[in-house]
Amino acid sequence: MKKKSKIPDRRSRHGREMFLLLLSGVLLFQWGKIDAFAAAKEIKTVNIRVTSKLEVGSKLPDIKLETTTVSDGEVAVDASGGKYSVSEAEWTDKSSNELKAAEEPQMKVTLEPEDVSEDYFVSSYKKANVKISGGTFVSARRDGDELVVTLREMPGGMKKAWDRRNGKSRITHPVITKCSFTEEKRKFTASPRPVRFSIIFIHI
Description:
With 204 residues, this protein is of the alpha/beta class. The chain is built from one helix and 14 strands; from the N terminus they run H-E-E-E-E-E-E-E-E-E-E-E-E-E-E. It is elongated and about 80 Å long. The N and C termini lie far apart (152 Å).
């Protein structure tokens, strides 16, 4: 006696077809993301510009975005690169109400790519790859598609000569190399040339 062949359940067959269709859609979507990311280019250098009119005694204001126009006591930050823009900026420390002399307040700037399918940030950046005008580099790390840069702002009221070659502040002082004396008062004048002294011995 022959056994009857089992007829596949239509429901189970329909379920398998839906599963395969869904799996194909997921694979195609992931492949499209991988292909788009492979075609994108990494942003190798980041440029940030800080415009400040902070003076000693000023309070830390809200930071203006994507502008270079500021009034007294204001601070603005913008990105000079066309592949990304500043989406957020905030002070990391607001412990002091007023800016003290020689103080460089720290801020956190968030950069957002204009089109992540064309340009993207790498996981981290070194100091040499982050150019900051009006501030000094602290750190830079990627958060999702965005890049978070921490920097120290240099208030416009501070009188410093900034050595951009090695990233260190350089303060120059006049050196007294020549002195002239009179009967009424002593005069000290700075001169770039060293003073030569001659001693004459007279034999009696």
